[in-house]
Specification:
The chain has 102 residues and is mainly α. It has three helices and two strands.
Length: 102
């Protein structure tokens, strides 16, 4: 048997295994859309029907501190790109030298 024939047989077997796997996963699904579930349930990403929760909890989020930090870093990055100097670098460097001397 030549190598070309063996590759074709392997490819065919592999394609049949993949096709069988896809068919089995489609067959095991409980639902594909919300229409497949009862009126008090929805179709989840795991393709199973889940009941709607009794109480919907909405958590309030505050992004002001995150936005302030991001804004400060953007301004610092723009300053470094424009001038080529890192602010407060000399002062920090001098403090480190003083600490090493002591």
């Amino acid at each position: 048997m030549n190598k070309k024939g063996a590759i074709q047989i392997v490819a065919l077997v592999l394609a049949l295994i993949i096709l069988a796997y896809l068919l089995i996963t489609f067959a095991q699904r409980e639902c594909n859309s919300n229409r497949d579930c009862p009126g008090n349930a929805y179709c989840g990403t795991d393709y199973e029907c889940h009941e709607f929760p009794d109480q919907i909890i909405v958590k309030q989020t505050n992004y002001i501190s995150s936005a302030a930090i991001l804004g400060i870093f953007l301004v610092m990055a723009a300053y470094i790109f424009k001038t080529g100097k890192v602010p407060f670098y000399k002062e920090i460097k001098n403090k480190i030298k003083k600490l090493k001397e002591d």
